[in-house]
Amino acid sequence: xxxxxxxxxxxxxxxxxxxxxxxxxxxxxxxxxxxxxxxxxxxxxxxxxxxxxxxxxxxxxxxxxxxxxxxxxxxxxxxxxxxxxxxxxxxxxxxxxxxxxxxxxxxxxxxxxxxxxxxxxxxxxxxxxxxxxxxxxxxxxxxxxxxxxxxxxxxxxxxxxxxxxxxxxxxxxxxxxxxxxxxxxxxxxxxxxxxxxxxxxxxxxxxxxxxxxxxxxxxxxxxxxxxxxxxxxxxxxxxxxxxxxxxxxxxxxxxxxxxxxxxxxxxxxxxxxxxxxxxxxxxxxxxxxxxxxxxxxxxxxxxxxxxxxxxxxxxxxxxxxxxxxxxxxxxxxxxxxxxxxxxxxxxxxxxxxxxxxxxxxxxxxxxxxxxxxxxxxxxxxxxxxxxxxxxxxxxxxxxxxxxxxxxxxxxxxxxxxxxxxxxxxxxxxxxxxxxxxxxxxxxxxxxxxxxxx
Length: 453
Known about the structure:
The chain is an alpha+beta fold. It folds into two domains: 23-111, Glutamine synthetase, N-terminal domain (Ubiquitin-like (UB roll)); 126-447, Creatine Kinase, Chain A, domain 2. Helices cover 32% and strands 18% of the residues. The strands form two sheets. Strands 7, 8, 9, 10, 11, 12, 13 and 14 form an eight-stranded mixed beta sheet that branches. Strands 1, 2, 3, 4, 5 and 6 form a six-stranded mixed beta sheet that branches. β8 and β9 (212-217) form a beta hairpin. The model has no long low-confidence stretch (mean pLDDT 92).
């Protein structure tokens, strides 16, 4: 069966998926501030006849609840953006009833300039700063999430899913293969969907929480991997729904259980030599490696609002609860916020363990890379390596969303690298969400304050 010419520009997995079949629909997608997929679905025949479509730029002012933040630029005229397909992102939507493709689009204004508040453009901006210096950033993300029982009443607490044994998934089963087998059918569908979409999974394992799973991805280009995480969140949710449960990427969905992180491994390659700049010619720590760590120690407080973007995010930052809420660094030390894994000199890297899985993957990677970039430019050295239990360290990070936003907006270096217009819009959206949260009375307040104060 003959397909439109644009299919020939798609990755091999997409071409194979529709081989011998009639493509029915194309979903034209852009990620909003929260990382929610916005866009249009259209017949494949119509998509083949157009090279762009339009959406109002106000989608980047929409909060996670669907409300609208005030536009910090003033007038709220909602001009259209021009969205053009990035054919390198074409991938299947294998859970649909018909043959459907998804395509991530680039957002430009009507003068052809990248829309500065579009999250994918923010990450491209940071990658571009590295490229201007002759560097190529490389990342490897780890995704943690929970499979939970269907929850259709938000007033009820989240509980673990029912496993194949008829029992609910148990906690404290880290790395247990039998624990993963409890919801093996969901995992099977995740593998099948990922294969159909051309995504390579480096490994799946059981984490410490009840129904908590971790998926590791191979290292690569930050924009491409952010695209994958964006797609993965959707495919994982779809796989869970097939088996009567939910997949959630909330930072802390279940009281008393650990939270879900998006650990990010970083290295930087010299574009001329192809060598990892974190190692010198003798395989030792290069000065740039220490500068990168120093930048993360210095600037991560200003990036936390992007790595922990919701009120719930800060419930994960609990001392002694498997979440390193510090800026210490150490080799093979999982109590530090910045961990240096065991590796060869060629693979020397730093792992940022502070990001939550609820972050927008484009913005989480952009914020983390921005900290390392500033460190490379400033050329400072980090504090001495932590050789003990970093859980005992003093608090150095903002532990509320409001404080995190204050630090981000007050940081001139962070505002400069992320873009002033983006920071202003991001703050407006998050302040609006926080204001909405304060209107809700929690069960804790009703239980302890109703009759006692």
